[in-house]
Specification:
- With 384 residues, the chain is an alpha+beta fold.
- The protein contains 10 helices and 20 strands.
- The strands form 4 sheets. A 6-stranded mixed beta sheet has the order 6-7-8-3-9-10, sandwiched between helices. The chain has a 5-stranded antiparallel beta sheet with strand order 13-12-11-14-20.
- It is elongated and about 80 Å long.
- The chain binds adenosine-5'-diphosphate (ADP) and magnesium ion (MG).
- Magnesium ion binds next to helix 2.
């Protein structure tokens, strides 16, 4: 994490003042070395993750990296192969599903088709042994909150996709959990409805102040809703950070590739002086601002990461400190933007994102040559 020690301490002090109660200083959920394998296949590999109260956490990663397994372990639907899960310091891994306070909403929703909307919402309370009158009253309150009160007597198959989604939410929220787990809950909805539900979910999370742990494969969902994004790869965590931190400074080549829109140039650190680091690659040498770069020593193999929108393209050379002569391979128009695909003489692919009007001014031809350049402070270095 890129938090400076001083800020971190201030943050902890602020937290201490906010919560007089000592027990609230610990994370709401703490996963310690959790491990899950199916036979010889490892789905989660000794993973540590702390989640604070009231946060919206998005978990992302390629298909099969263990996101759903992680949520199912938290929900109590899978037994851990190793490690512990704590809620406010108390171990919950052996508790049954209905005693965990960690309900899960998933894509297929798993509503009961033979029950009405109201009965579906009451179901979670019935499992907890809440009496009939209170059950009904609480379920109706949540149906109202989610604008479903006019549909309470319908079967769930008489609802639209968005309404079914809200029934599934109501069924979880009626138990008033401190954390709600959501596994790609919007992926079955069309694009328009999905965007609307994103807004509703975020608003609901803020109003209720409960923690959402939200698995998605959609960058836009994660980056628009989450306070914190977790990027997973092969059962492990690659990076945790605020959306802008992950977007601006992917910590590993995997994260940079997974998020897309970045260029990765393999280099070796040649020189380090007070203000800058000089890197060397098969495509030439480049300057980096040492302020934006962590602990790199001379001789280290590193990856230089430059975002596609931070590269400029010029017809002539000699304009910038960092410059590579490239061949134009192709162009793709994405609305008002153009993704220009280039290749260096050593074969490194470079992608540049330009405004369409800047592109027109350039007079670019496929197969022709251009100069790609960037400012020393816009490249960031990660150890290879
Ligand atoms: P994600 O949700 O990130 O796509 P999953 O958590 O569903 O990934 O799966 C992680 C890995 O665990 C995958 O390799 C998957 O094949 C495997 N896996 C998941 N559930 C089971 C299961 N019940 N039995 C065997 N392997 C499983
Ligand atoms: Mg999944």
């Amino acid at each position: 994490m890129l938090v400076e020690p001083e800020k971190n301490i201030n943050h902890q002090i602020a937290l201490h003042h906010a919560h007089q109660d000592e027990t609230k200083m610990q994370p709401l959920i703490s996963m310690k070395g959790i491990h899950k394998s199916y036979g010889r296949a490892v789905a989660i590999e000794r993973l540590d993750l702390d989640i604070d109260e009231g946060k919206f956490i998005a978990i992302m990663g390629p298909s099969g990296c263990g996101k759903s397994t992680l949520l199912r372990c938290l929900a109590g639907m899978e037994e851990l192969s190793g490690g512990k899960i704590l809620r406010q310091g108390i171990e919950i891994n052996d508790l049954p599903i209905w005693e965990r306070d960690t309900p899960l909403v998933w894509q297929s929703l798993a509503l009961f088709p033979f029950l009405t909307v109201l009965e579906n919402v009451e179901f979670g309370l019935r499992m907890k042994g809440v009496g009939r009158g209170e059950r009904r009253e609480r379920a109706l309150r949540w149906l109202k909150r989610l604008q479903l009160e006019d549909h309470s007597d319908r079967g769930v198959d008489q609802l639209s996709g968005g309404q079914r989604q809200r029934v599934a939410l109501a069924r979880c929220l009626v138990t008033e959990p401190s954390v709600l787990l959501l596994d790609e809950p919007l992926s079955a909805l069309d694009a328009h409805l999905s965007v609307r539900m994103q807004g509703e979910l975020k608003r609901l999370q803020r109003e209720l102040g409960i923690t959402f742990i939200y698995v998605t494969h959609s960058h836009s969902e994660a980056f628009s809703m989450a306070d914190q994004v977790v990027i997973m790869n092969e059962g492990r965590i690659e990076q945790i950070g605020a959306p802008e931190e992950i977007y601006l400074r992917p910590a590993t080549p995997f994260v940079a590739r997974f998020l897309g829109g970045s260029n990765i140039i393999e280099c070796k650190a040649r020189e380090r002086n007070s203000g800058e680091i000089i890197l060397e690659s098969t495509d030439g040498s480049f300057k980096c601002d040492s302020k934006v770069t962590s602990n790199v020593s001379c001789g280290d193999k590193v990856n230089l990461i430059i975002r596609a929108d931070q590269i400029s393209v010029t017809a002539e050379a000699g304009w910038a400190e960092n410059e590579i002569y490239c061949q134009v391979i192709g162009e793709e128009f994405v609305g008002a933007l153009v993704n220009l695909r280039l290749e260096t003489s050593s074969g490194t692919p470079i992608i540049v994102q330009l405004q369409q009007r800047d592109m027109e001014a350039l007079d670019i031809e496929i197969g022709g040559g251009v100069n790609a350049s960037w400012h020393p402070e816009d490249g960031h270095i990660i150890n290879a």
